[in-house]
Amino acid sequence: DADVTQTPRNRITKTGKRIMLECSQTKGHDRMYWYRQDPGLGLRLIYYSFDVKDINKGEISDGYSVSRQAQAKFSLSLESAIPNQTALYFCATSDSGTANEKLFFGSGTQLSVL
Amino acid sequence: GQQVMQIPQYQHVQEGEDFTTYCNSSTTLSNIQWYKQRPGGHPVFLIQLVKSGEVKKQKRLTFQFGEAKKNSSLHITATQTTDVGTYFCAGRRGSGGSNYKLTFGKGTLLTVNP
């Protein structure tokens, strides 16, 4: 959805570099998520935040950190990138006040670690 | 932890044939959602099922939730080339805490030969 914006769209970096992926949303949703997608492995949850100052680990948080600077912004950092972190990263949001609380995804960031 | 298994991983059909993807959870779910990801795109919400034995239809798509709330299926009747993409199921265990997050299946990639 255009209301969930991820930057950059593509990034190539080298092993050991620090990388930050940004996500911002104009939907007014309270909950935000970071997923990574690898071929054949589906979508795996890295971190999620139910509100500002709330941070929770997902299935695969090792090697990642996040910051929820404001309700609209949720950034993902790789402190020291490694090649197996090469993947497609999605940010998503949801509204806890809705009945089905569906996820709205950004367009993704393709990260390559050489 | 919770696992959501989805089969098949790939399905290739001739246009006009039917298609089904199946989802099985290792634990009872409170609800299950289905998403579609077009090639090069991001996942987009299709539907949520909540009740035991629930069946919902969206035009040529039929979604079912099992009686035990541990399995679900998506059936597409008379596929069209616009149905191409990866279909994901995502299950939620409960209503609070870490159980609330969605766990995605690995997805079924559908290709349609015109």
Main attributes of the structure:
heterodimer; A: 114 residues; mainly beta; 7-stranded mixed sheet; 4-stranded antiparallel sheet; B: 114 residues; 6-stranded mixed sheet; 0% helix
Describe the structure.
The complex is a heterodimer of chains A (114) and B (114). In chain A, strand 5 (42-49) and strand 6 (56-57) form a beta hairpin. In chain A, the strands form two sheets. In chain A, strands 2, 4, 5, 6, 9, 10 and 11 form a seven-stranded mixed sheet that branches. With 114 residues, chain A is mainly β. Chain A has strands at 4-7, 10-13, 19-25, 31-38, 42-49, 56-57, 65-70, 73-78, 87-94, 104-105, 109-113. The mean pLDDT of chain A is 94. By secondary structure, chain B is mainly beta. Chain B has strands at 4-7, 10-14, 19-25, 31-37, 44-49, 55-58, 61-65, 71-76, 85-92, 102-104, 108-113. In chain B, the strands form two sheets. In chain B, strands 2, 4, 5, 9, 10 and 11 form a six-stranded mixed sheet that branches. In chain B, strands 1-3-8-7-6 form a five-stranded antiparallel sheet, with no helix packed on it. Chain B is globular. Chain B starts with a strand and ends with a strand. The mean pLDDT of chain B is 93. The chains are: A mainly beta (114), B mainly beta (114). Chain A binds chain B through residues 1, 33, 35, 40-45, 48, 56, 58-59, 90, 100, 102-108, and chain B through 1, 6, 9, 31, 33, 35, 41-45, 48, 88, 90, 98, 101-107.
